[in-house]
UniProtKB/TrEMBL annotation:
Keywords: Hydrolase, Serine esterase, Signal
InterPro entries recorded: AB_hydrolase_fold, GCE-like_dom
Organism: Pelagihabitans pacificus
Stated name of the protein: Alpha/beta hydrolase
Signal peptide: 1-20
GO terms, molecular function: carboxylic ester hydrolase activity
Domain 4-O-methyl-glucuronoyl methylesterase-like, chain residue ranges per copy: 225-372
Length: 420
């Protein structure tokens, strides 16, 4: 009768040991000596000197590495894609905007998945650029607009947002307006397109009830070792949203945005789909914009143990062995070149390693230079709240891990220079 107890104790001890082994590091003196992988040297030692060589040789092999060993490969194509306009109104956001709510349906292997896209567009413009980004708890949380539909998908419980029993209700409407400066976007001539990420793939270590399950072969219950984790699934969902947006005549360009884990998804979506006119990473940290080899803040081992469903299983081979990585996150950022990219950090968000995010942007600037685009020209971290707004832009702001009005003010001013 005691055997199950011993097994439970053994599993608990193993979990505690893993977390102890992969504790985050907040001490710069403990950052190991490491070599930043060269963007301009292929894996077989060939030197790259021109943008054409980058596109023909170096970029494809880096994209393949991240696909096979970090985020995971999408195992096939959809059988069908469709969308339906659920609702629209021309008097939203204090009469300044048009609102659309669109249901997007993905079909594969006689299975289907639906998610809703909420779209606000400025009135008086035949077409407008939009920011596209996932939200964490439902489209209804980003606005007080009573017409926005409440998601019925699984939702992580959050006492502050009044979400319990893994279900969103009217009580959570407008609880995250602080992260979405919708009226500022509209006033500047931009629209917003947003999706609840849990409708695409619920954020839990369970691959049975999201996008992955559409692609399973008979008897399959989880992705294969080099197949996609949740970050790649969320990126896939963003690309499906783009399939709709590029065919909406009211939209001119799409700039993809993501915060934290959704910043990781935005970067991967931007790297794998050049239809996105620009990419914004807000506090994306480990597995996003931050250099993994620095082993500062959250590390590869820590993120894989805390969130085992985010990445491909193949990424686990680098747990505690970041020095063995043949590529690093500055090379992910470089995959977005020459399209505009904005990387942002927060001074109190040491978990996401602001210095590592900045250095990745600095090193990625080499590829932007190949295209004659301006990036980050110094490896010295800029002053807090003093943005560098080139084609490859960066800021580190006051405060912690969040999205604030300051962030959106910078993104809007940067995008206006580039896209309006």
């Amino acid at each position: 009768m005691m055997k199950p107890v011993f097994i439970l104790l053994a599993v608990t001890c193993m979990m505690q040991s893993a977390f102890t082994q992969f504790e985050p590091n907040y001490d710069e003196s403990k950052v190991p000596q490491f070599e930043v992988p060269d963007l301009l040297t292929t894996f077989n030692g060939e030197k790259i000197t021109k943008a054409e060589q980058w596109e023909d040789k170096r970029r494809p092999e880096l994209l393949r590495f991240f696909e096979e060993e970090v985020y995971g490969r999408v195992p096939g194509n959809l059988d069908a894609f469709s969308f339906k306009l659920l609702e629209q109104d021309d008097s939203a956001v204090n009469g300044k905007a048009r609102r659309k709510q669109v249901a997007i349906t993905l079909e594969k292997n006689k299975r289907s998945l639906n998610f809703n896209l909420l779209l606000y567009l400025p009135k008086g413009s035949p077409s407008a650029p939009v920011f596209l980004g996932y939200n964490f708890h439902g489209n209804h949380t980003v606005t007080h607009d009573p017409k926005v539909l409440i998601t019925d998908a699984w939702n992580e419980n959050n006492e502050a947002l009044e979400i319990s029993n893994n279900k969103a209700t009217e009580a959570s409407r407008g609880k995250r307006t602080n992260r979405w400066a919708i009226e500022k976007m509209i006033d500047a001539g931009f629209g917003l397109a947003t999706i609840y990420y849990g409708e695409v793939d619920p954020d839990k270590n369970d691959f049975t009830d999201g996008l992955h399950a559409l692609f399973y072969k008979e008897g399959q219950e989880r992705p294969e070792t080099n197949e996609w984790g949740s970050i790649a699934a969320w990126a896939f969902g963003l690309r499906c949203a783009m399939d709709y947006l590029e065919n909406d005549g009211d939209i001119s360009k799409v700039v993809i945005f993501g915060h934290s884990r959704l910043g990781k998804a935005a970067l991967w979506a931007g790297a794998t789909d050049n239809r996105f006119a620009g990419v914004i990473s807000n506090d994306s940290g480990c597995g996003g914009a931050a250099l993994s080899k620095r082993q500062f803040g959250e590390t590869v081992g820590r993120i894989n143990h805390s969130f085992p469903h985010w990445f491909a299983d193949a990424f686990e081979q680098y747990n505690g062995k970041e020095e063995q990585l043949p590529a690093d996150q500055h090379q992910l950022l470089a995959l977005i070149a020459p399209r505009p990219l904005y990387v942002a950090s927060a001074v109190e968000d040491q978990w996401a390693d602001p210095k590592g995010e900045f250095l990745a942007a600095y090193y990625a600037s080499t590829i932007y230079g190949l295209y004659g685009k301006a990036g980050i020209t110094t490896d010295e971290l800029p002053a807090v709240d003093r943005p560098i707004q080139n084609t490859l832009a960066y800021h580190i702001r006051s405060g912690g891990h969040d999205v604030m009005d300051y962030d959106w003010e910078q993104y809007i001013s940067w995008a206006k220079k580039l896209f309006n």
